[in-house]
Design a protein that fits this description.
about 350 residues; alpha/beta; 3-stranded parallel β-sheet; 10 helices; 12 strands; globular
Length: about 350
Amino acid sequence: CMDLFYDTCKDITHYRGRRRAHFHEFMLDVHQRIHQFKRDHPKQDPIPFVALELAHEAQLLCFDEFQVTDIADALILKRLFSLMFHIGVVVVSTSNRPPDALYEGGLNRSLFLPFIDSLKETCDVISMDTTHDYRRDAINVENNQSNSYFLTCNGTTTYNSLQHIFNSGGGNSRNEAIPVIMGREVKVSRANEKCAWFDFKELCHQPLGAADYISIANRFDTIIIDNVPQLGANHYNEARRFVTLIDALYEARTKLVISAQVALENLFVDFQAQLVTSDGDEEIAVEEKKSRDETWVNGEGGSSSSNSTTMVRSKNGENIEWSATGRVGVSLAQLSAVQEVAFSFRRAESRLAEMSGSQWGQ
């Protein structure tokens, strides 16, 4: 739908300008503009300047996957969009959450609520609920096989298939450093002209983010990721990075080849995050739900105090204590990001299904 709308507006916005971006990409651009302005004007407020600059470049902004997961973005969005709406910028966005659920459970969310009210007053909210997943239509139903999703248990057969795909990228295997915004770079240990081959740990056990993944997606036509484990609450950080990576590759229409420990339908283990305080004022951040794999998160005690821990109970009854840094406790601020990752699993699985189709990336 977004593709159709954006293409239809081509003639209408010829003189006024239009822009389409994944929300990750847009926020990276906003942060870079803020950084550059503050470097040149350290005592001035960058938000009005950035809003005017964006409005001058495009009067129509189209976003995919509008989401808010941290307080910095929440406060920037509140001011930035209020100014752009006032200037007359038209915003059209897709999101997996209605406005009232944006930044749910986030730190100081009360400061963000006026922006939600502004969104609902300024924008028409249209629910497009459907039970049919059109992305899965790309799967080869006849033999249920994919030329881009392999199982590590097949050993030599899988390795030879990955090697063949890598060699088709052309040129000799080499190391490469890819530029990332704000003067950084990301290292690629195995690359050729059109393809890069990563172990899962290289991409998702390292402190990489959307900017790194977008740079990788824009550089290569094909990305191979080897040794992908089953992802759930016990691999929260890795799952969060992997979902962000999938979003970047999907938006760039980069071909993704995966070698995983489990079948695609079992790759993501659903979980729901819940935080309950027991300091006399009980607070539940989200409604408790049972996932299809009976994996859930239950917290007892206060959030950032010594009265709190957050536990993940797996479907086999094992309890795992964890946080956004790997283990031991979780704050209400972190909980919002955790919920977003759990919520994004089905979207990621759906996108992977589409990306495993033979027509993807062509």
